[in-house]
Amino acid sequence: MNAQNLNAPSAYFMAAVTETPESHTLSVLVDNEPGVLARVIGLFSGRGYNIDSLTVSETEHEKHLSRITIVTTGTPLVIEQIHHQLERLVPIHRVTNLTVEARGRNFEKPLERELALIKVAGVGEKRLEALRLADAFRATVIDATAEHFVFEITGRTNKVDQFISILKPLGLVEVSRSGVAALQRGAEGL
Amino acid sequence: MKREMTGAEMVLQALKDQGVEHVFGYPGGAVLPIYDEIIQQDAVRHVLVRHEQGAGHAAEGYARSTGKPGVVLVTSGPGATNMVTALADAMLDSIPMVCITGQVPTNLIGNDAFQECDTVGITRPCTKHNWLVRRVEDLPRILHEAFYVATTGRPGPVVIDIPKDVQFATGEYEGPRHVAHKSYRPRVKGDMDAIRRAVELLAHARRPVFYTGGGVINSGPAACQLLRELVELTGAPITSTLMGLGAFPASGKQWLGMLGMHGTYEANMAMHDCDVMINIGARFDDRITGRLDAFSPNSLKVHVDIDPSSINKTVTVDIPIVGDVAHVLEDMVRLWRTGSHQIDKAALDGWWSQIDGWRARNSLAYRPSEDIIMPQYAIQRLYEKTKGRETYVSTEVGQHQMWAAQFFGFEEPNHWLTSGGLGTMGYGLPAAIGAQVAHPEALCVDIAGDASILMNIQEMSTAVQFGLPVKVFILNNQYMGMVRQWQQLLHGNRLSHSYMESLPDFVKLAEAYGGHGIRVDKPADLDAALDEMIATPKPVIFDCRVANLTNCFPMIPSGKAHNEMLLPDEANDEAIANAISADGKALV
Which residue in B has a C-alpha nearest to residue A33's C-alpha? Predict the structure, then answer.
């Protein structure tokens, strides 16, 4: 909210937001048709919602269904809005708020994993340190020369964040991350 | 029954199968195959507009006045982009509209071809759904699906973008079939438990109010009938948004008038002081609620809406009911009757006497004049002169729109056509044309402002060509009146670019188009001129010269609540200057 604008004379009624935002993970089942991702992303940008992470891929080939996993931040009312606004899109089959479902089962969060590829360049002690850390984080080496490593790591977002930040002083070159994939715990599906 | 035909033929066949009688459109390179089919048949009549935006608003007027979807046909590129305003307008006001656009051939898409634009990309946020048809095999299914999506659930505009090669290609046509859509399933039946609780709540209310909106009208004539029944059964007062006018008769005893920024004092005070609010088919728009943290602070709220995303969007409610208004009202009326419910008589009498006190403030009062025509008076005379006739009223956007809403009494739904959500200047004339196409014998009047009318004045030519005797009634105050009013309220009366210098001679303009022009500037001449306008069997532009600096009151100034209205008898220059004080501005 632009605090200084709250005092400007206006034709609109503006109020400061007082509720605290929370992070939620939504699982969205959609028809895998052209433009469907643009509809989802356009909804978020058009209505001013946040996207912290987004992954999408076809998950049920014969039914042409894709699953979009979105991590978003908002007040409880905004999260409810996002849920309903998504359901309004015609090619969307189902929207599930995995965070709310997990809480209903007394878990803090649903199952969430992210994959990252991380390139580190360096020689000598720094290189050895990077390798030792990779071992501790259960990252694997998928490419290497005498001057570099590429690590693959899978885990919760904060684990990946932590690994990357530790590698920074050890010659971090670049990172590619998949974004969060998530599922609900237990036997049932969406 | 399957038949082999071209894509262009499929479009016309699908329109016929969907019961479409009129299409508003404008030809161009990428839709020529469809136009070639149009001229070879009589079942679907094409109305040629002068600008694609006009086609869009005409289709909206047609849809709003009939309950059927409005259909438009325009070409690619500029044809499609000129439709965007009308699509956004229909989106915000939930008007069913099917827009067919031509597109460059599929092999040229993405090549910056002549008159190419990314139509589905541009219209995605201002349509309920849109399709780019890449294969003629998909065309029949998409055409029928488009009508289904546009007209069911919360209605809205849809776009079907058809590349020119798909219009030429041949394939098998299939008629509309009743199959469940694979992902789109609007809910029409409300949750019975929630409805039961809502009826109980209403039965135990002491100060209830019905707050209704355009959703009642969209739900159909049955919904309006059921609403009237429920309101009468309960004895509770009723107010409505701009979009909902006509669902409940303005002559009804329980009618409080419109609510919101320029609503009546009694409607807004009742909303503020009620203990139970029943919102039916309205969406707590910011023009309605005023300051949100002071909106109806002591009431329990029921919200009936077919769109789940309308629930708890701006105002949190106690009993949400997702469903079609007519279905929910049917259940409510039945439960009310079978439960022999009755609101406490003494409480209701007390509530009504409080409301009568607010009514006595006469919040729509204005100072009449014998020398100049007051805009409110002009609307009142128009209303009196058209009473008893089948009259459809459209408006542009601004002060004249609010005065029309305040002073023209609507007895039936679907007779009031206005751009509520988007606030589109230039809406009224094409909308009146659309209504006139649907109702050739009725009187269709566009209540306009001198600024708004110039935004789509070219549609006079359409009206003349098709013998549509629409009446344009301009409240000419030589200002963008609402802009000027806001500049007076918020910007120290510095009238930046809100004065319409060098307006055209509207009488000559009418004549230039082949219509009839009338000008009046004396109150004494008004009635005879209105008679002349109504009796003229061709399009008329009526230049009604009104008091220039009249403000539209009552008004909820920015940052104020429903119980802090600025009333006309208090609105002297000083009060207007201080209406939004430094403190108030901080709250805006």
Answer: B131
**Which residues are CB-contacts of B353 (< 8 A; sequence separation ≥ 6)?**
none
Catalytically active residues of B, by annotation: 52, 114-115, 164, 482
Contact list in A for residue B152 (CB cut-off 8 A) is none
Q: Which residues in A lie closer than 8 A to residue B556 (C-beta atoms)?
A: none
- Please answer whether residues B483 and B500 qualify as being in contact, where contact means their C-beta atoms are separated by less than 8 angstroms: no
Residue at a domain's end among B359, B386, B409:
B359
Matching residue, tokens 């935002």: A21
Task: Give the total number of structural domains in chain B.
Answer: 3
CATH classification code of A18-104: 3.30.70.260
CATH number listed for the domain at residues A111-183? 3.30.70.1150
CA distances to A141, A174, B282 from A146, rounded to whole Å, are 13, 17, 68
pLDDT tens for chain A, residues 1 to 190: 444 555 566 767 666 667 889 999 999 999 999 999 999 999 999 999 999 999 999 999 999 999 999 999 999 999 999 999 999 999 999 999 999 999 999 999 999 999 999 999 999 999 999 999 999 999 999 999 999 999 999 999 999 999 999 999 999 999 999 999 999 998 888 7
- Is A12–B486 a contact, with Cβ atoms under 8 angstroms apart? no
Domain boundaries, chain A: 18-104, 111-183
Confirm or reject contact between A1 and chain B (CB < 8 A): no
Between β-strands B300-305 and B129-132, what pairing exists: parallel, antiparallel or unpaired?
unpaired
CB-CB under 8 Å, A8 with B308: no
CA end-to-end span of chain B, whole Å? 61
Same domain, B431 and B484: yes
Query: What's the whole-model pTM score?
Result: 0.95
ipTM, two decimals, is 0.90
Chain B touched by A7 (CB under 8 Å): yes
**Full residue range of the structural domain in which residue B254 is found:** 192-359
